[in-house]
């Protein structure tokens, strides 16, 4: 089955408040985007990559892809106003003949190869797959005043990561239905498949190292993680 990765790097990183979108900041000499792309480039189950970037950084991304020899990148496209729009742009650009797509947040730059493999493996028998983590802290629900309304049953709660995997026709349909509804703020792609009940969404184990870089402190953690991997290699 031929599979492409759609890498979403079209955000502006408002919460990070960096000198440029966080995915272009470097740790140990490589941008987060390059580190992320190299994980997919190096995975034998990925046949091609579609990269979605802010319009202002298209050239920068293209130069990096060439310099770093990320030969699987087939297209670099300007993103949309929301993550969902950027994802729609990527999904719409999937080349003909593709059966599966993995959609991944560039902000999870350190994505371990094992997660890519786990999602690909589950996709053989499923149409939509998400990696998840157990919740380690007590989770509560609150009322409008901020008072605790319920202590939630942690055993059925999970935190959602990317890459999420899909049969191309399922995620295409999900995005088309969202556009028809005028809904554009999904935080991830499986949410759309669930919203329109298009397929069961299967979970596979995520990885605590697959952190999303949101704030500057996350970059410090990512750098430490990267250094420890290099040291132990
Ligand atoms: N993303 C995107 N297009 C957008 C918004 C987000 O491709 N219009 C991507 C981001 O580049 C990121 C992923 O979606 O890799 C997850 O988004 P998030 O971590 O929220 O990144 P930003 O939206 O850039 O950050 P913020 O919400 O703080 O502005
Ligand atoms: Mg965002």
Structure, described:
Strands 1, 4, 5, 6, 7, 10, 11 and 12 form an 8-stranded mixed β-sheet that branches. The chain is built from 7 helices and 12 strands. Helices cover about 35% and strands about 25% of the residues. With about 230 residues, it is of the alpha/beta class. A hairpin with a 5-residue loop joins strand 8 and strand 9 (about 150). Helix 3 crosses helix 5. Cytidine-5'-triphosphate binds near residues 10 and 214.
Q: Give the SSE string.
A: EEEHEHEHEHEEEEEHHEH
| Helical fraction | 25-40%
N-end to C-end Cα span: 31 Å
Rg on CA atoms, Å: 18 Å
> Strand count, sense and closure of the main sheet?
8 strands, mixed
% residues in beta strands: 15-25%
- Total number of beta strands: 12
Low-confidence stretches: none
Bound molecules: cytidine-5'-triphosphate, magnesium ion
Structural class: alpha/beta
Q: For the residues shown, what is the average pLDDT?
A: 96
What is the molecular shape?
globular
Specify the number of helices.
Answer: 7
Q: Which structural traits does this protein have?
A:
233 residues, 7 helices, binds magnesium ion, 23% strand, alpha/beta, single chain, binds cytidine-5'-triphosphate, 8-stranded mixed β-sheet
């Amino acid at each position: 089955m031929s599979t492409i990765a759609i890498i979403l790097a079209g955000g502006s990183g408002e919460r990070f408040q960096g000198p440029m979108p966080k995915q272009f900041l470097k740790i140990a000499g490589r941008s987060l985007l390059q580190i992320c792309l190299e994980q997919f480039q190096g995975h034998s189950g990925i046949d091609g990559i579609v990269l979605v970037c802010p319009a202002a950084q298209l050239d920068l991304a293209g130069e990096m892809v060439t310099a770093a020899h990320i030969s699987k990148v087939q297209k670099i496209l300007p993103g949309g106003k929301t993550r969902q729009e950027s994802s729609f742009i990527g999904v719409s650009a999937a080349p003909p003949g593709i059966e599966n797509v993995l959609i991944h947040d560039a902000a999870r730059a350190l994505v371990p190869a094992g997660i890519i493999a786990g999602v690909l493996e589950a996709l053989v028998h499923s149409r939509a797959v998400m990696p998840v983590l157990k919740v380690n802290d007590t989770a509560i629900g609150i009322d409008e005043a901020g008072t605790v309304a319920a202590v939630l049953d942690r055993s059925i709660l999970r935190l959602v990561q990317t890459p999420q995997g899909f049969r191309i026709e399922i995620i295409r349909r999900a995005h088309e239905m969202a556009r028809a509804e005028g809904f554009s703020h999904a935080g991830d792609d499986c949410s759309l498949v669930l919203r329109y009940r298009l397929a069961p969404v299967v979970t596979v184990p995520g990885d605590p190292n697959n952190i999303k870089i949101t704030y500057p402190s996350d970059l410090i953690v990512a750098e430490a993680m990267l250094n420890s991997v290099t040291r132990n290699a």
